[in-house]
Design goal:
The chain is mostly helical. It has helices at about 5-20, 25-45, 50-79.
């Protein structure tokens, strides 16, 4: 699969993994949130991204990686 933008990739992640029930919905919400924060940091001169925001982002990222690893281990076991 190839995608033309990050937004399209995130949408396709939701379509192929969340709507199918393969992964929990919070992963998609957290991915969208992380992308939004990244956009603010990259493109907004007056972005107000605080330590609390980063702490939540880090927690969500670690959870995302953990759930992804769990999912991949079940896929590999099924093959």
């Amino acid at each position: 699969m190839t995608f033309s933008s990050h937004k399209v990739l995130i949408a396709q992640f939701g379509l192929h993994f969340i709507k199918t029930g393969e992964l929990p919905a919070d992963m998609h919400a957290n991915l969208r949130s992380a992308f939004d924060i990244r956009q603010q940091g990259d493109y907004w001169i007056d972005a107000a991204i605080g330590v609390d925001d980063v702490d939540i982002l880090l927690e969500n990222t670690l959870d995302f990686v953990e759930k992804t690893c769990e999912y991949l281990s079940t896929v590999e076991a099924a093959e």
